Amino acid sequence: MRGAGAPDFFYREAQRLGYVARSAFKLLQIQKHYKLIKPGSSVLDLGCAPGAWLQVACQSLGPLKNGGLVVGIDLKKIKVPPLHCDSRVKTICADVMSLPKCRIRALSPQQKGFAVILSDMCPLVSGITTRDAALSAELGMRALDLAIGRAAPVHSEYVTQEEQSGSSFSSDDNGVLQDEGHLVIKLLESEDVKDISQISKQLFRKSTWLRPKATRPSSREIYLICQGLKPKAKL
Asked: What are the transmembrane regions (predicted)?
């Protein structure tokens, strides 16, 4: 889900250091500034292809003895990169937009959810600014819904049929992000992202924007860094 482009400094550095994509440096900067991933953390990577964020996330867990887990989900079936990853990393081929929260939660340790959720999902860019921004916002809202649950006022199209079935509130109303957990969402700059920002400010202790240095000059990508999910914010 990460776009390609002409080789540049970050591309060459990724090749030199064994990362599968230049996007590794975006998460490296986020991790350096915010230290979201702690040793032993459980991490969910949404839109994980081609695997650069899996590599950085695993590195951030520290030595294998520290424990921890990194689960990557993507529409594409990808193999875990051989460098910078170990047995704590696994990938699932699935559509995040239709995958029920209960199935995602089942992938976490003791099925108690994840400490960190990373969403580097991005739509196939059409070149139509308004359309691309709307699709990006839709992916961002889905990431927020997966993390928070029905505490996030998302529209019905972000809720799967399985989640809609049964009673009005079920066990799947809950998000898969742990209390005090962190969420990173990639978005395309537009008016559409303001809603997501306003929601996150109410639910997290801190919410800030970051445009990583590794972002291409022509890109409208920006990352919303949500830190410390308030315990009462989840249903």
From this structure: none
Give backbone dihedrals phi and psi of 183, rounded to 5 degrees, phi first: -135, 135
Instruction: Compute the chain's Rg from CA coordinates.
Output: 17
Alpha carbon distance 98, 26 (integer Å): 27
Q: How many domains does the chain have?
A: 1
Measured CA to CA in angstroms, residue 36 lies from 30, 43, 197, 227 at distances of: 8, 10, 18, 8
Torsional sign, CA 233, 35, 221, 93: negative
Averaged pLDDT score across all residues of the chain: 88
At 120-176, the pLDDT tens digits run 998 887 888 889 899 999 999 999 999 998 655 544 444 454 454 443 334 457 899
Helix (H) or strand (E) holding 44: strand 42-46
Domain that holds residue 91: 27-233
* 8 in any annotated domain: no
Domain CATH for 184: 3.40.50.150
Residue 3 has pLDDT above 70, yes or no: no
Cα–Cα dist 97/180, whole Å: 24
The answer as to whether 221 is a domain residue is: yes
Q: pLDDT band at 72, cuts 50/70/90?
A: very high
Neighbours of 167 (CB within 10 A): 7
